[in-house]
Amino acid sequence: MKRKFVPVCTLLVLTLVTLGCGLLTPAEPTATAEPTEPPAPTNTPRPTNTPAPTNTPAPTDTPEPKVELGDEVRSEDGGFSFRAIPGFEVEEGFGIASLEAPDADPDIGPAIMMVGYEDEEGATPEELFGSQTEDVEEGVEVSPPRPITVDGKPGLVADISGDFDGKEAAGRIVVVAVTPNHHFLMLGAAPADEWDAFAPLFDAVLASVRFFPPAGAEEPPMGGETRQWAVSATASSQYGDVSWSAMQAAGAPDTPECGDYTTAWASSGYDTIEWIELEYDTPVQPTEVNIVQNYNPNQVVKVELRDVQGTYHTIYEGEPEDESDTCPFTLHITVEDADYQAVAVKITIDQSVLEDWNEIDAVELVGIADRPGG
Question: Which of 19, 70, 188, 279 has the most CB atoms at less than 10 Å from its CB?
Fold first, then answer.
């Protein structure tokens, strides 16, 4: 990566670039075309009291744009790989990778930067996103985050636009919790009038990203950590037989943003106490549960795990809380010292306090699977 990409890092004011910019080497700047106004960030839809059909949601995983990419590049220290953009300059080292257009503006791209790293403290996608965007400087706007999955892992994506020393830029940021301790961040930027043309390249590179344990990472015990979304679900009630049904909470997140969507589970009533139970393919010794909620979170009052013998184990109890400021919201529950193999998650919600639907998009069960034959 070259010194001329440093201003893009400064513009976005992200930890990602704080990590990356110290490794840059100098290069001569080049000229840029006169920019135009950047696109305005998307506003979060305001919730309503009654679910209504909505448009088709975004895909469950990162899209597969029809863009021809080049060879695979692996970042062993970062624990990720991606396919390069033909003609772009690619550099990788110390868990950081960059792609830069041959005619990139010295301050605002087009360019992409990625970093993978391990953090002993651990974090959810929401916590990662907050830490990366909390100090954005005046003149830079970040849209509300939208849920996304990258190589099957939960994350958030948001659009960025702003002015840097008189240059209008636009871009996108993605944060992914590969595991609670293995984090991945990716940002792209371009002059505002070039972003629409550059965005499909960014999306294509993002869709090509694959994760693996970073070099030097400790191997998990037994058969390794397994992250899985539910394969089936039942509930105390559901708003529809297909739309807002219990099965809408099975599978990976597929609700595009905060709001009332048919692709999430909603109970038949809006002021009731309800439950949903989700089944998983692989029995695991549980280590965490992540409950992705897209509407009026968090009214979860109890979470239980069902083991292979049919016994329920309570792992969380709480009170209804208004989490609308952080919607979409993922309730992250750490499970410690579990001595059983879990195959299902049962969630109880109490909607009688806030008197509005709490919609659940997906539920992830994480744990250690037995070795084959173990």
Answer: 188
CB count, 10 Å around CB of 48? 12
Nearest to 14 by CA among 97, 115, 136, 112: 136
For residue 69, the one-letter residue type is L
pTM: 0.52
Q: For the chain, how long is the longest CA-to-CA vector?
A: 67
Q: Lowest mean pLDDT: which of 27-36, 47-56, 202-211?
A: 27-36
Cβ contact 265:360 at 8 Å: yes
Alpha-carbon gap, residue 114 to 16, rounded angstroms = 8
The Cα 184–Cα 99 span in angstroms is 16
Two tokens, residue 62: 């990162």
Tokens of 215: 């070099």
Show the DSSP H helices in the chain as ranges. 6-12, 15-21, 125-133, 195-208
User: What residues contact 237, with CB distance under 8 A and at least 6 apart?
Assistant: 267, 268, 269, 272, 274
**Mind listing the pLDDT tens digit for each residue in 139-156?**
788 899 998 888 878 889
* DSSP code at position 244: T
CA dist., res. 221 & res. 233, Å (int) = 29
Using DSSP bridges, classify how beta strands 312-317 and 300-307 pair: parallel, antiparallel or unpaired: antiparallel
CB 226 within 8 A of CB 369: yes
C-alpha closest to that of 58 among 156, 144, 142, 146: 146
How far is 133 from 15, CA to CA, in rounded Å? Answer: 9
Q: Is 305 exposed, middle or buried (0-12, 13-18, 19+ CB in 10 A)?
A: buried
